[in-house]
Specification:
The structure is a single chain. By secondary structure, this protein is mainly beta. It has one domain. 0% of the residues lie in helices and 39% in strands. The protein has no helices and 14 strands. Strands 3, 4, 5, 6, 10, 11, 12 and 13 form an 8-stranded antiparallel beta sheet that branches. A hairpin with an 8-residue loop joins strand 8 and strand 9.
C-alpha cells in the first residue's frame, strides 16, 4: 500500500501588532470565490523552466502549457533550492466585525499564488495533493481544518518563501492482490525552487462566520473534516471557503516584499 499526501510547505502565520515597511502595497476587499476563473490545473501551470506546476491526474501537461512534462522517473531528478526571498502578506480586518482566516487544511492549501501573464494566469504549485497510485485509504474532503479569528482592526500575517514546486511523474510498482503480478503505476512528486520574478496574485480563504463543526477559544479554532466526499488532486488546491481576500503584487529579482491585504 502506498499513499501520497500533501507535502508540507513553509507558510507561516502569526498575529501582528504593527506592519513593517513595504516594497509594494496592494489592497483588495473580500469577494466571492472565483469559481471558473481559477487557474485550470494541467493547462494553467507555470511555464516550462519556471514554476513547473503539474496537471490533474491523467493529464501531465506538455511543454509550453506549464504542466508536468509527462515523463516518468526524472533522471537526474531536480534538486530543492533554498529560498532567497520572503513575501509577507499583512491582512488587516477593517470590516467592523470578526473575520476567520483559514490556517490549515485537509488535502489542500490555505494560500494560493497565481502568476499573472499578459492575457492570462497560471497556478504556482505549492504542494502535491493526495494521490492514490496503488491502494490507499479514503482521503476525505479538501476543506479547512483550522481558522484564526481576526477581530476588527487587528492584523494577521502570512508569509510565502517565493518558491514553487518543480514536478515530475515517478513510477511505482503496485502489489495489489496475489496471485496477480505487480502492475506499473505512477504519481506526481516535486521539489521546491525559487520562482522567477514577475507579477503575482495571492488568494486567501476567509469566512465571515465560523463554519459549523469548528470549535475553540480565543483566536484559534479547529474543525472537523467531512468525509462525505473524497478529494484527490496531483497538485494540492486551495481549501474551499465561502469568501476570499486577494491582492496583486510584483516579485522582483531579489529582495523581500511586503503586501497589504485589506478585509472590508
Amino acid at each position: 500500500m502506498h499513499v501520497r499526501g500533501v507535502v508540507a510547505v513553509p507558510v507561516v502565520v502569526v498575529i501582528l501588532a504593527a506592519c513593517g515597511p513595504a516594497n509594494e502595497v496592494a489592497t483588495a476587499k473580500i469577494t466571492d470565490p472565483r469559481g471558473n476563473s481559477d487557474a485550470a490545473l494541467g493547462s494553467g501551470g507555470a511555464r516550462v523552466g519556471s514554476d513547473g506546476g503539474a496537471g490533474r491526474a491523467g493529464n501531465g501537461g506538455s511543454p509550453g502549457t506549464g504542466g508536468a512534462s509527462g515523463a516518468n522517473d526524472a533522471s537526474p531528478p531536480p534538486t530543492e533550492v533554498p529560498s532567497t526571498q520572503t513575501v509577507t502578506f499583512t491582512i488587516t480586518n477593517n470590516s467592523g466585525a470578526d473575520r476567520y482566516v483559514a490556517t490549515a487544511g485537509n488535502n489542500c492549501m490555505t494560500i494560493e499564488l497565481d502568476r499573472l501573464w499578459d492575457g492570462g494566469q497560471s497556478l504556482v504549485a505549492l504542494a502535491v495533493g493526495f494521490q492514490c497510485p496503488c491502494e490507499c485509504p479514503m482521503p476525505g474532503s479538501a476543506r479547512p481544518t483550522a481558522f484564526r479569528r481576526v477581530g476588527p482592526g487587528e492584523t494577521f500575517e502570512v508569509t510565502w518563501d517565493a518558491r514553487g514546486l518543480t514536478t515530475w511523474r515517478q513510477s511505482i510498482d503496485c502489489n495489489d492482490l496475489a496471485p496477480f503480478p505487480p502492475r506499473r503505476s505512477s504519481f506526481v512528486t516535486g521539489v521546491l525552487r525559487p520562482v522567477e520574478p514577475g507579477r503575482f496574485r495571492v488568494v486567501l480563504g476567509i469566512e465571515p462566520t465560523l463554519p459549523a463543526g469548528c470549535s475553540g477559544s480565543g483566536s484559534d479554532y479547529r474543525c472537523d473534516v467531512s468525509y462525505d466526499t473524497n478529494d484527490m488532486s496531483e497538485i494540492a488546491p486551495r481549501c474551499a471557503t465561502s469568501a476570499i481576500a486577494t491582492a496583486e503584487f510584483t516579485l522582483p529579482a531579489s529582495g523581500d516584499v511586503a503586501v497589504s491585504v485589506e478585509i472590508k
